[in-house]
Amino acid sequence: MIGDKKVLYSGMQATGNLTLGNYLGALKNWVTLNEEYECFYGVMDLHSLTVRQNAAEFRKRARSLYTLYVAAGLNPETNCIYFQSHVSAHAELAWLLNCFTYMGELNRMTQFKDKSAKHADNINAGLFTYPVLMAADILLYQADVVPVGVDQMQHLEITRDIAERFNHIYGDVFTIPEGYIGKSGAKIMSLQEPTKKMSKSDENANASIYLLDDTDTIIRKFKRAVTDSGSEIRYAEDKPGICNLMDIYTATTGKTKEEIEKEFDGKGYGEFKMAVGEAVVSVLKPLQDRMAELEKDKSYIDRMIKENDEKAQYFANKTLRKVQKKLGLTERIR
Ligand code: TRP
Known about the structure:
By secondary structure, the chain is mostly helical. It folds into two domains: 7-180 and 298-327, 3-Layer(aba) Sandwich (Rossmann fold), CATH 3.40.50.620; 205-292, Orthogonal Bundle (Tyrosyl-Transfer RNA Synthetase), CATH 1.10.240. It contains 13 helices and five strands. Strands 1-2-3 form a three-stranded parallel β-sheet. Strands 4-5 form a two-stranded parallel sheet. Strand 1, helix 1 and strand 2 (37-44) form a beta-alpha-beta unit. The two termini are 29 Å apart. 37% of the residues are buried. The mean pLDDT is 95. It binds tryptophan.
């Protein structure tokens, strides 16, 4: 708790360009959580280093992710939006928690298995201990709730296990976090393989709508979206392509499945795809305009980074000092 509010923690890696899936599934819903929770959102740049990055591009991308958070509507004066690498307590606590995490547990992580298969030439120790750093992120802020997608649930589970193990030995040091599955967190699928999640690391650029895609690109990608056999606009299990487009249309217009089926009764896939494309443009355009504006106002973003780094450091260090003390590390002389 901070004041009378529960603490919420989440973040995204500064890898790849954010997609419509990241926006409709996560970011858009985060905006509404600030009323109820004290919110912390990290730009997870340390996690990104588990994969080789080009330094110049990486620097730009991390800053752009920060700005996108703001452009998407997260107010940086009430949400603590900060860079993970600016708060050294993350790396420090991760080390300490490494000593409370078992090889066997980490070996079971499905994301580690997937990523090592994908980057067979760079299976580094950071990739292996990735979940421990994530546990440190969450536990440093004594988070009560963590909104994450299903693919991150296993990481949240191990976070809870590590925290419980630590608390069992040293008393109530860490708050045990719960997953938070947003009410309307739509799961958006690939436009090319609608049984697969839309991903920022998809090699096929037509599979994903990137938040900064221009209007023509968005419309073109929707026109090319893979649909199913048949011609009806109907929400049915054997129509994953149409279901995905309907989900996107619902998330961008607020219309229900029944309303959509009625609206497009007797009309073809082509017309429906155009409508979905236009609905997406009308949601992303204001975000992009705001992004362009913020990118011009360097000093505002700089000031927000500085203030929020300090705020994050304050809360993180408080937890870190407590952990160090419990472990018997020699106290600093002041
Ligand atoms: N692993 C998360 C992802 O790839 C990003 C992340 C890192 C995160 N640390 C976190 C998410 C802490 C929530 C809380 O999506």
